[in-house]
Amino acid sequence: MSAASHDDVSRRDFLYVFSGAAAGVGVAVTAWPFIDQMNPSAAVQALAATEVDLTPIQDGQQITVMWQGKPTWVRKRTQAEIDEVRAMPDSELKDPEADQDRVKKPEWLVVIGICTHLGCIPNRDNSKQPGGYLCACHGSVYDASGRILHGPAPANLPVPPYQFVSDTLIRIG
Ligand code: FES
Q: Which class would CATH give 46-172?
């Protein structure tokens, strides 16, 4: 092969490679809006996570925030309430689970406030369980850890995924 034909081959190879690479970039640029629209929008991502400022919640208080359309309780438990749930024997629990496994910090309880029987919203009610919750629909009683004690509900109130962003801020979801 002469030097001239070798140059021609090299130039042709370069053109093939270059045009192939350019086509790849073109496909990527064209496809990006379609791929990008498959990502959850900012609004959906905002609904997927809820940030809660803990600063205004005093000892013994509870607030309800909506997370993914579900009422979610954020409660600052007193030391007496923590001691009570931690002293609860497993034999009293229908769905035994240690309180320590349901909270990230002893004073903060975060649970979805929907009864695990048929979906009513329980209320804080001391009449059946000090510091606990009563679902008036069919009489399910939960403790201050959201664990089912009595009644037809089969399971504890669920703990949503959450994390402490700082000592005074949590992100649920
Ligand atoms: S829905 Fe709560 S006890 Fe039935």
A: mainly beta
